[in-house]
Amino acid sequence: MDYNITWRKKDKGWQFIISFKDSTGKWKQKSKQGFKTQKEGKPVIENMLDDLEDEIENQKHLNVEYTGITLKKFSEIYLEHETLYREQNTIEMKEYSLKKIEILEDMLLKDISNLDIQKCVDTMVKEDLSKQTIKNYLSMLKAMFNSAIDQFDIITSNPVTNIKLPEDKGTKEKTALTQAEFKNLLDSINDTRLNLITLLAGSCGLRIGEILGLKWSDIDEINLTISIKRQLKKIKKKKKYGLGSLKNKNAYRVVPLSDNVYNELKNFKNTNPINFNDRLFNFTNTASMASRLSELYSDKGYDISVHELRHTYATTLIANGVDFKTVAKLMGHSVEQTIKTYSHVTDEMMKKATQTIRSIF
Prior knowledge:
Blueprint: E1 3-10, E2 13-21, E3 27-35, H1 38-59, H2 71-82, H3 88-99, H4 114-126, H5 131-150, H6 179-188, H7 192-204, H8 208-212, E4 219-220, E5 225-228, E6 231-234, E7 241-244, E8 253-256, H9 259-271, H10 286-299, H11 308-319, H12 324-331, H13 335-341, H14 343-360
Antiparallel strand pairs: 1-2, 2-3, 4-5, 5-8, 6-7
């Protein structure tokens, strides 16, 4: 690598400037300042030279076909590729993420820097987006830039690194109803369909998409179980709701039914005509149903979502001594995910255990 180093006094200290030729033969510069002596800066120079040599070597292997590609054009290629392998909801999340940096869409992909991404994040912070929401967007964007590095050989480094994020404002703790509160909520819902959906979420731990994907053939009236085999979700390419595969392999499961839940299902079946496709419910949109239920619960005095009723189900099981492995299987989670999500329950159980130990010994 052709380069030379110069030093100059700056801000009561020393600054070094490395002038070097990049992979195209153009001269460029990198600098760093704030050193009390030149000797103090020499190790930093050595590290920077090593990094530059690696970067220039990597650039020699870049795909020249994409040399002048913009963020907008690459994102189109990337999304078209991802659509073959990802669920429609994931594709839409990636599209939302790209909208957050659309101000950069006319820039060459290779010219987008960490600072450019940071400015976009600063805008998100001004929009009062939560830290977790911003992290979700950045995760999607980081995956796209990694693809530009590993699959397309367009760039050598990912600009979505070392991004400063806002401080945590404190996340809303997941709500879990007591069994008395859950019963009161059910008693207050007169619509039989919405009542049964609520019951299945809070007494079986089902996701809203799983509930709306249920068929009567999934219910085993002899063993009193319900098999989760599909969900109502957005289908790839069509971008319309339809019955499809579950979230992951853990989501395929068999959940036991209590006598109460089975009787409610039986009553519902006897009083409602079975539709031609054997589905329990004819609703066609999970998002609108989730929103409708949240409004309903709020009107009844409960600040809870239908998804959080799964939280009620899991919390109740753990608090009553069901082990994490079993709860994970019933929820369609991994054991690690279940422990992480419900660690607060074990804290409460530890307090009870402490009291029990003290009373015994």
